[in-house]
Amino acid sequence: MANERTFSIIKPDATKLGVVGKIIARFESEGLRICAVKKIHMSKRVAEGFYAVHAGRPFFDELTDFMSSGPCVVMVLEGDNAISENRRIMGATNPDDADEGTLRKLYGAHIGNNAVHGSDAPETAAVEIAYFFAGTELH
Ligand code: ATP
Ligand code: MG
After folding, report:
1. 105 close to 95: Cβ distance less than 8 angstroms
2. Whose CA is nearest to atom 12 of ligand 1?
3. What does the pLDDT look like over 87-119, one tens digit per residue?
4. Measuring from atom 30 of ligand 1, which residue has the nearest CA?
5. Helices and strands of the chain, counted as H and E runs
6. How many other C-beta atoms are found inside a 10 Å radius of the C-beta of residue 65?
7. Which end of the chain has a smaller Cβ tally under 10 Å, C or N?
């Protein structure tokens, strides 16, 4: 098993629902360690930069409007296979398809408002962590 770091966002729908504490507790109870955490409110431009890989997709404008619509909690999680573990805990992108008990099933409303983000590979994790955190902020 590889010890990894991954990047996580508690999206504006989930902060509005008031489940930040529950989501963080879930990650910790599943064995992921919080290396860094902060609450931010992304501008539209910051959201566009974060999701640049999806620029040009039909849902890009809706996605970046949503991500800049309210505060988020951004985090760095660390643990064995942290990237795939985080995605397992989150569940499928569309809450309708997500397994029972996953964060997206519990707290997501639909594919556009799906409560959490998690990096999908080591390369994207590194880029996404560096987009929001300085190396000196990871402990
Ligand atoms: P995330 O990157 O947010 O962790 P993901 O990796 O499961 O989600 P991606 O394919 O990277 O899914 O899509 C990024 C986000 O764009 C999704 O979380 C979702 O909110 C939104 N999205 C993806 N596909 C659609 C779609 N067909 N319609 C509306 N929104 C979509
Ligand atoms: Mg993704």
Report:
1. yes
2. 93
3. 999 999 999 999 999 999 999 999 999 999 999
4. 112
5. 7, 4
6. 12
7. N
- For residue 133, which amino acid is it? F
Which residue in the list 41, 54, 110, 117 is annotated as catalytic? 117
Token couple for 58? 């039909």
Residue 15 CA from chain centroid, whole number? 12
Is 117 annotated in the active site? yes
For residue 27, give the nearest of 82, 64, 65 by alpha carbon.
82
The pLDDT tens digits for 53-90 are 999 999 999 999 999 999 999 999 999 999 999 999 99
Tally of residues, the chain: 139
Q: Which amino acid is at 20?
A: V
Q: How far apart are CA 81 and CA 120, in angstroms?
A: 12
